[in-house]
Design goal:
Layout (H helix, E strand, L loop, with lengths): L1 E9 L2 E7 L4 E6 L5 H11 L15 E9 L10 E9 L4 E5 L2 E3 L1 H8 L3 E5 L4 H4 L1 H12 L1 H26 L4 H21 L5 H13 L1 H14 L2 H15 L8 H28 L4 H21 L3 H20 L1 H46 L6 E8 L10 E8 L7 E2 L6 H15 L7 E5 L7 H14 L4 E5 L3 H6 L2 E10 L2 E8 L2 H13 L4 H12 L4
Parallel strand pairs: 3-13, 3-14, 8-12, 12-13
Antiparallel strand pairs: 1-2, 1-4, 4-5, 5-6, 6-7, 9-10, 10-11, 14-15
Helix pairs in contact: 4-13, 5-13, 6-12, 7-11, 8-10, 9-10, 11-12, 13-14, 14-15, 17-18
């Protein structure tokens, strides 16, 4: 249940705090006092849309916080769950659940388990077909629980086998497609006959080819510089020094150094001449190098960053091909188990469907009875159960949809086709009344669902909301004295002008103030007659 609602800077709301209670809470007040803004704020904290025009004039942000008390909830800390949403005029949005930042979608999903808002424009639960099967199953109760549990267990196992077969290529088409791909990849790599270190050598050769003209020119200059003339000059110097070697031994070392240079220059000259021969490439050889490198680059793009990684990938592909070719025996066992589970799911799903169809009629009858009392005499609800022959769903083999015919002679249609928000709200009220004891939604909020009704219908709406409040916290905005008189807690919403600014105020009324408010709502005046009428309504309050 919501224990506290805190709103700042929404429309004319400056800083408003409401402490709510279990049971039936009714908010009344004059038009324009801010009742709708309170519902809007609850929608926003439930993940609804927010327009920056809603920010109070002169402020740059809006803030909404609610505290809920759910002692058995795993999300609660000491029983409390605190939800906050802060929105700035620049579009920045901050949502928190117990201090943890969440996205708006996460907030919306989380709050959908705690609060339902029903009014002229908010009945998203009824628009969602997935909730219809939950309504029906909650209505059925114990009779379907064991069957659903058995179905759920088998359904989980069934999905596990489907996933395993997919991973094991149990589907024949998928397996063949994968084998064709793997064999193509392996063949492509093997045909390339890659060798480690090959790419580096080819890159080096390609580099030389690309610079062959420059290399040839400079090698030619180098060859000329160290050619026969240079070598002959060094030889002449050696021979000249040899003639005076006997005169002084100090010339011997110089002669030895010159001989080494002489032999070294001969070696260098031969090397340079050899280099000159190596750079003589024909066009075919250039093409072969480029083609081979292109092949290596393409394989690297597909299978690895280098040749070793490509060869490793080829080994893995070969192993996977062997695995797929030999997994058929195991897959056959899985397919047999899958077929057995399908038979079981069909059997259990059929049993569940038969029970649903039986109770769908009862649920339709009960809701239609409630609608009759809510002055929707010509409306007929039809809860339809459609068995899907070749499909399996999480909750069985059925699709459950709620249809309605609002007027005699018209065709029934989906609930989403109903134009009137008031009709939709009363339909939800009828459903909630029927499911009140089994529905686990903690908080139900009804926003002016009494629009356009009075008399007996108004009394019926009040009684049904009061009945629902025994199992749920109910928060209701109303203009009807009959509904206000039924409340466990009455709040008066007003507005006050201070310092040339209008602000919304809220007050929890005591019993005397409740009577005065009922009198005001019923006739617009508070006098002895209206107070007596208010007292009579209050005494008829459903306990």
């Amino acid at each position: 249940m919501i224990t506290n609602l805190h709103i700042k800077n929404i429309g004319i709301i400056d800083d408003l705090e409401i402490n709510l209670n279990n049971g039936m809470n009714v908010l009344t007040g004059e038009t324009g006092a801010g009742k709708t803004l309170i519902i809007d704020s609850l929608e926003i904290i439930c993940g609804g849309r927010f327009s920056k025009e809603m920010i109070r004039k002169g402020e740059n942000y809006s803030y909404i916080e609610i505290c809920m008390y759910e002692p058995q909830d795993i999300n609660a800390i000491d029983g409390n769950i605190i939800i906050e949403r802060e929105i700035y005029s620049n579009g920045r949005n901050s949502c928190k659940i117990n201090g943890r930042l969440v996205t708006v979608n996460e907030l919306k999903t989380f709050m959908s388990n705690y609060i339902e808002i029903h009014g002229q424009n908010q009945n998203q639960q009824l628009f969602d077909n997935s909730t219809h099967i939950k309504y029906l199953d909650n209505f059925i109760g114990k009779e379907i629980i064991q069957l659903k549990s058995s179905y759920s267990e088998k359904y989980m196992k069934y999905n596990e086998i489907k996933r395993e077969l997919k991973n094991n290529y149990g589907d024949e088409k998928e397996k063949q497609r994968k084998l064709d791909l793997l064999r193509y990849q392996l063949n492509e790599i093997k045909e390339a006959k890659l060798k480690n270190g090959e790419e580096e050598k080819l890159e080096e050769k390609r580099k030389i080819m690309m610079n062959s003209e420059k290399i040839a020119k400079n090698l030619g200059e180098a060859s000329q510089a160290v050619g026969e003339n240079t070598i002959d000059s060094i030889g002449t110097a050696v021979r000249a020094l040899e003639k005076i070697e006997e005169i002084d031994t100090k010339y011997s070392q110089t002669i030895e150094d010159l001989r080494n240079i002489y032999y070294g220059m001969q070696e260098i000259s031969r090397d340079i001449n050899s280099y000159c021969e190596d750079i003589d490439f024909d066009e075919e050889e250039r093409t072969n190098v480029e083609t081979r490198l292109d092949t290596i680059y393409e394989l690297k793009r597909k299978y690895g960053n280098n040749i070793q990684e490509i060869l490793n990938y080829a080994e893995e592909v070969e192993k996977e091909i062997t695995k797929i070719e030999n997994v058929e025996e195991y897959n056959e066992k899985l397919r047999k188990e899958q077929l057995e589970l399908e038979n079981s799911l069909n059997t259990i799903g059929t049993q569940i469907s038969e029970i649903r169809k039986k109770y769908a009629k009862k649920l339709s009858e009960k809701i239609n009875k409630e609608l009759l009392e809510l002055e929707m005499k010509n409306a007929k609800i039809n809860v339809k159960v459609e068995f899907k022959e070749n499909e399996f769903f999480e909750d069985g083999k059925d699709e459950v949809k709620i249809f309605i015919k609002t007027n005699i002679g018209e065709n029934e249609c989906k609930l989403t086709k109903i134009a009137s928000g008031g009709e939709m709200s009363r339909i939800m009220l009828a459903i909630k009344k029927v499911l009140a004891e089994v529905d686990n939604m903690p908080v139900l909020i009804f926003d002016e669902i009494d629009t356009g009704i009075s008399g007996k219908a108004a009394k019926s709406v009040a009684d049904k909301m009061k009945s629902i409040s025994k199992n749920h916290q109910v928060l209701c905005i109303s203009h009807l004295a009959t509904i206000a008189a039924t409340a466990d807690y009455n709040y008066f919403i007003s507005k006050k002008v201070e310092n040339e600014r209008t602000s919304t105020k809220v007050k929890l009324l005591n019993e005397q103030e409740v009577l005065q408010e009922i009198a005001r709502i019923s006739s617009g005046e508070i006098n002895e007659v209206t107070l007596k009428y208010a007292s009579e309504l209050r005494n008829k309050k459903v306990s």
